[in-house]
Specification:
This protein is an alpha+beta fold. It folds into two domains: about 5-220, Beta-galactosidase, Chain A, domain 5 (Distorted Sandwich), CATH 2.70.98.10; about 225-620, Glycosyltransferase (Alpha/alpha barrel). The chain has 17 helices and 25 strands. The strands form six sheets. Strands 1, 2, 3, 4, 5, 6, 7, 8, 9, 10, 11, 12, 13 and 14 form a 14-stranded antiparallel beta sheet that branches. A three-stranded antiparallel beta sheet has the order 23-24-25. It has a two-stranded antiparallel ribbon with strand order 15-16. Helix 4 (about 275-290) packs across helix 16, helix 8 packs across helix 9 and helix 15 (about 550-560) packs antiparallel against helix 16.
């Protein structure tokens, strides 16, 4: 059973897939060739899932960091006898064009050891277990490589010397002296492809240097944010870039599946897909943290994937990263789960839920990025205009909401709000969408939604906008009312809602819950931790309301849970303070970016939707 804290891991990405590497040097999660492919290593979800570990023999101290401007991880091990640096990366391909980061990635994991002082003995264990631990591959030595065969793909481990594996596992002791280096590379190929040749030591070193250079070129070309918490914002921007799927422009919600929202609980979901909502939020965060080259690619992706959507057919809320629609959920019985948190799930049953808020999120992202998108192709113009039509036609319906409840659908406040956002942004973009003839109809519908929110979303007894129409329960999603411009943050009803959330949804650690699970609204047993995105939302709204000092305090409190390599999961366990949920979580890094930027805007007395530095940068490219 995996027992390491979730925050013990660091993310590697080639913008096709992701790997998690522990502080101790074990790769305990890796999927090839895509984020949502079946795993090669999954020890984070149970011992049977497989691992690739490199670790000193005996006691050691370690420190780690991402190399500047990259998602390349450097771990330094120190023992009484010496010091060794382990550098890990997923190879991003040969191009150094910062606008094509990850294009042509060869699906390879690179691991390089260098002894920087004294000497050290290290144990290497290579134990792939494809298809979530279902397969024990057959391993064959082929020159300076070991070929692992079994299932739908093959794995070639390039080695510094001839090595032999037994029973589907390679165990070897490595001896390194000062100045010596050893390089390893694991490359995937499908059964329909030729087996690639093993990398030489020099090829592996060059591939690693090229990957470092490619990330640094992207950072230098794209990232110009120069506000408070600059390093955190820029790093979060790189994390979001690492969670994007380069071939299509899709963006995953997180790199993992089934890391639980509470230890031992069953709120364990697969987040390796592209939610329209999360991806739209990501693009808006990249508007702050990086020039989002991928914006047009994402809109092209979702337009193609959802081409059949319209007023009579709700937009599917999520897709596979290749545009797949059917993401049917299933349980993986052979994996015990992180610290016994079962079930381990693949697929996500929310794929066929109705969630009306997605119309607003995607149109809000298009509006935010309108200057960069420029003249839209006819298919994207038509798609976005049809989303506004769909919001106008469907806003009166119940839905499952932003939190994807598995209980009874409701008239969720946030869903109504985002239908209003869809209409508001479409009206403002009508010229760009070449849809001026629809403005009158959209305006009438927007007024109807607005009236419904003000009359039915506000609960005078509670003194707040509540979770759904007719509800007495609070929901942190109400903090989005001022963020999207529905009402000013200084409006008395907004100030009252903020106060109610501070009183009733803030835990003993000063972090914000999404909602109280004991109401039974979500149809699930058990509890969950505090939600980092919602905590950053509170910081953002406080900044907009003029409470800048309080906003900074909330921001620092949430950011204090960043791991030593600057990563955040979805939630924080209110009792233990541990990071919980899938990792790293795009939502949390999105919240960090937006809250930092909102505080900057408040301190400089700028409108909430203005970012001249980024817009100037965009217009120059």
């Amino acid at each position: 059973m995996s027992t390491l804290p979730i925050s013990d891991y660091a993310l590697l990405s080639d913008r096709h897939s992701g790997a998690l590497v522990s502080r101790g040097g074990s790769v305990d999660w890796l999927c090839f060739p895509r984020f949502d492919s079946s795993s090669v290593f999954a020890a984070i979800l149970g011992e049977s899932g497989g691992t690739w570990s490199i670790h000193p023999q005996g006691p050691c101290a370690c420190s780690r960091r991402y190399l500047d401007g990259t998602m390349v991880l450097e771990t330094t091990f120190r023992t009484d006898s010496g010091e060794v640096t382990l550098t890990d990366a997923m190879e991003v391909g040969e191009t150094l064009d910062p606008h094509r980061l990850g294009e042509g990635a060869p699906h390879a994991l690179l691991r390089s050891l260098t002894c920087t002082g004294g000497s050290m003995s290290l144990d290497l264990c290579f134990k792939p277990r494809p298809e979530y631990g279902l397969i024990v591959p057959v391993m064959t030595s082929i020159g300076l490589g070991i070929l692992a065969t079994g299932g739908s793909g093959r794995l070639l481990l390039s080695c510094p010397e001839v090595l032999h594996a037994e029973a589907g596992e390679l165990n070897v002791t490595l001896e390194l002296h000062e100045g010596e280096s050893l390089n390893f590379a694991l490359r995937y190929s499908s059964l329909g492809e030729a087996v690639p040749s093993a990398y030489s030591q020099s090829q592996m070193q060059q591939s690693l240097l090229r990957t470092v250079a490619a990330w640094q070129e992207w950072t230098a070309d794209h990232q110009s944010y120069d506000g408070p918490w600059r390093d955190l914002v820029l790093h979060s921007g790189r994390v979001l870039q690492a969670l994007s799927y380069q071939p299509t422009g899709a963006i995953v919600a997180a790199a993992t599946t089934s890391l639980p929202e509470l230890e031992g609980g069953e709120r364990n979901w697969d987040y390796r897909y592209s939610w329209v909502r999360d991806a739209s939020f990501t693009l808006q965060a990249l508007w702050v943290a990086a020039c989002p080259d991928e914006a047009e690619e994402f809109f092209a992706f979702v337009t193609a994937a959802a081409a059949h959507s319209g007023p009579s057919h709700p937009l599917q809320i999520m897709f596979g990263i290749g545009g797949e629609h059917d993401l049917t959920e299933r349980v993986i019985p052979q994996l015990a789960g992180w610290r016994g948190s079962r079930p381990v799930r693949v697929g996500n049953g929310a794929w066929n839920q109705t969630q009306l808020d997605v119309y607003g999120e995607i149109l809000d992202a298009a509006f935010r990025l309108r200057d960069q998108l420029g003249d839209l192709p006819p298919e994207i113009r038509g798609f976005l205009a049809n989303l506004a039509d769909a919001a106008a036609a469907q806003w009166r319906q119940t839905d499952n909401g932003i939190w994807e409840i598995r209980g009874e659908p409701q008239h969720f406040l946030y869903s109504k709000l985002m239908c209003w956002v869809a209409l508001d942004r479409a009206i403002k973009m009508a010229g760009q969408l070449q849809a001026q003839d629809r403005v009158q109809r959209w305006t009438a519908a927007a007024e109807q939604v607005r009236t419904a929110i003000l009359e039915q979303g506000w609960n005078p007894k509670v003194g707040a906008f509540t979770q759904h129409f007719g509800s007495d329960s609070l929901d942190a999603a109400a903090l989005m009312l001022p963020i999207v411009g529905f009402l000013p943050a200084t409006d008395p009803k907004i100030l009252s809602t903020i106060a109610a959330i501070e009183e009733k949804l803030v835990d003993d650690r000063g972090l914000v819950l999404r909602y109280r699970t004991d109401t039974g609204i979500d149809g699930l047993p058990g509890e969950e931790g505090s939600f980092l995105l919602c905590t950053f939302w509170l910081a953002e709204t406080l900044a907009m309301a003029g409470r800048t000092a309080d906003a900074k305090e909330i921001f620092e409190r949430a950011a204090g849970y960043l791991s030593d390599v600057g990563l955040l999961a979805e939630e924080i366990d209110t009792e233990t303070g541990q990071q919980m949920g899938n990792f790293p979580q795009a939502f949390s890094h999105i919240g960090l970016i937006h809250a930092a930027w909102a505080i900057q805007q408040a301190e400089q007395n700028r409108p909430h939707d203005e970012h001249p530095t980024i817009l100037d940068n965009v217009m120059q490219k």
